[in-house]
Structures are given as C-alpha cells and as structure tokens.
C-alpha cells in the first residue's frame, strides 16, 4: 500500500508535482491529502478486487468445457487482453505519484514492452498465424498457441525488469518516521 505514496504531499497546499501551487487554487480545490489516503486505499482495494474477479472469470472460462471450443477462442483472447489492460490502472497511478522520479520512465518503458508483448502474442493467437497460411505444417511446433506463450514469457521478463528497477529505487529510500 505505501510503496507508491512515500513522496506524496500531506496537505492540500502542495501538489503532486511540487512545481505549481496555483494548480490547486480556486473553488475546485482538491480534498485535503491526509483525508485522501483513505481514498487511495479504497482505490487500491477496488483495483485488486476487480483484477481478482477478472482472474476468477478467466479460470472459470478456461475450465469450462463450453468455453473451450473454437467458437469462444476470441472471447478467451479478449478476456486475457482485458486483464492486461486492467494493469493500466495501477501503472497510471504510479506515473502520477512518481512524476518527478527519473526511474518512472524506465519502469514505464518496461511495462509498455510487457503490454506490447501480451498484445502481439494475443494477436497471433486470435488470428491463428502461421497455421492459417500452411495448414498442417505447424501442428507440432510453431503454431499460434506456442507463439502466444513465447510472447507471454517475454512480457513476464519485461515485467520482471520493471520490478527490478522499482525495487532498486525503493531500496535507496529512507523512512523518516
């Protein structure tokens, strides 16, 4: 919970980027950020709940014989892609909170590479490339499902790289309390 809010301002007089106090002035002044910590916890819990529910739906879909047919191949692929897109919510949150940190760009690049890997792999899976071009030739090796899994592994490695950058960054921080 506290891994992204270490440098978050603790009053309404400061903003997240610390470079424009006028941004929060006027009738639309934001909520006091001390009270907003509860809102952050609620947002995090709703994000975790959403991805958990989506994961349960994915498991049910994968284990159900009805959804294992070719008719629902695109539905399964869209379900996997939606889980990947759901990861944009915490990524955008982290970018906003760590706007002034140079590690943000490196971590974001890794996460974008992860998302592209998942999307490209899913496109191979949906479009049945390359077996649609040479039916029967790719029955044992090189078919779309295998290519999909290669891209999933590449995405996982990219996510691992982002986690390493983030953990190295977090290890340099000190707790002032």
Structure description:
The chain is built from 5 helices and no strands. Residues 1-38 have low confidence and may be disordered. Helix content is 61%, strand content 0%. The longest helix has 31 residues, at 33-63. Helix 1 (33-63) packs antiparallel against helix 2 and helix 2 (73-86) packs antiparallel against helix 4. The chain is globular, with a radius of gyration of 21 Å. The two termini are 16 Å apart. With 177 residues, the protein is an all-alpha fold.
Structural class: mainly alpha
Low-confidence stretches: 1-38
Mind telling me the C-alpha Rg?
Answer: 21 Å
Kindly state the percentage of residues in helix.
55-70%
Q: Which assembly state applies to the chains in this document?
A: single chain
Mean pLDDT: 76
Q: What's the overall geometry?
A: globular
How many H/I helices?
5
Output the helix-strand order.
HHHHH
Question: Tags for this entry?
Answer:
177 residues, mainly alpha, 5 helices, transmembrane helix
Question: Could you write a compact summary of the structure shown?
Answer:
The chain has helices spanning 33-63, 73-86, 88-97, 103-127, 144-171.
């Amino acid at each position: 919970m506290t891994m992204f809010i270490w440098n978050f301002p603790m009053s309404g007089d400061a903003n997240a980027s610390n470079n424009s106090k006028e941004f929060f002035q006027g009738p639309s002044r934001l909520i006091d950020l001390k009270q907003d910590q509860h809102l952050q916890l609620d947002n995090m819990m709703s994000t975790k709940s959403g991805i958990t529910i989506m994961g349960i739906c994915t498991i049910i879909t994968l284990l159900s014989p009805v959804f294992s047919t070719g008719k629902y191949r695109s539905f399964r692929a869209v379900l996997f892609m939606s889980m990947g897109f759901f990861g944009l919510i915490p990524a955008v949150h982290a970018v906003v909170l760590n706007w002034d940190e140079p590690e943000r760009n490196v971590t974001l690049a890794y996460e974008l590479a992860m998302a592209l890997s998942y999307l490209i792999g899913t496109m191979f899976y949906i479009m049945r490339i390359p077996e649609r071009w040479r039916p029967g030739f790719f029955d044992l090796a090189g078919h779309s499902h295998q290519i999909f899994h290669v891209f999933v592994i590449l995405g996982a490695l990219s996510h691992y790289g982002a986690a390493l950058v983030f953990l190295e960054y977090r290890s340099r921080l000190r707790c002032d309390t």
